[in-house]
Amino acid sequence: GAVVSQHPSRVICKSGTSVKIECRSLDFQATTMFWYRQFPKKSLMLMATSNEGSKATYEQGVEKDKFLINHASLTLSTLTVTSAHPEDSSFYICSGQGPYEQYFGPGTRLTVT
Amino acid sequence: GENVEQHPSTLSVQEGDSAVIKCTYSDSASNYFPWYKQELGKRPQLIIDIRSNVGEKKDQRIAVTLNKTAKHFSLHITETQPEDSAVYFCAARGGSNYKLTFGKGTLLTVNP
Questions:
Q1: Residues of chain A neighbouring B42 (CB-CB closer than 8 A)
Q2: Which residues contact B40 (CB under 8 A, 6 or more apart)?
Q3: What is the pLDDT of residues A67-80, one digit of tens each?
């Protein structure tokens, strides 16, 4: 199947700083990418839909100014968590929409101290 | 929007037994229903999916059934093995925006 990578896999940052997470589709072009957040023992919650060359569509309750999404090419989308707080600590997973299914990245574990 | 309910939240079976996980969805326009297996700290892995023009699909020990009228679909795992232990998520997708709505997950434990 198609491969999606994420970087970094783990990151620890201090409160008030910003963190950027990269999501890359390695062997296919993803016009649409998705960003999810997953808290421990919980389901995947869609944060936003990212379309190449246009603004992301955010789900209700997700602050677009706090979670900045950029989808500058067909193989790269980035999520920047701005002014991070401890409650932003979570597992962030991206996915790329392929011809038939979504392909998930390995996730990024964010810890805000 | 779409709402997906998943039951049970936890399921414990003996090795060799069958396991069944059930999901219901609310949007009659949904037409694609994947099932994912997620191990701790890992990405979700697609294990089987079904589209709305099919009532059943099987892949070795795994099968999925879909009842469009009742708006529910189920995952069946036969001859369970300890390595089947994981969290399983159902999801539903409809329309043209490719968005997946996930169920809350089922923690399956297969006891040796």
A1: 106-107
A2: none
A3: 999 998 899 999 99
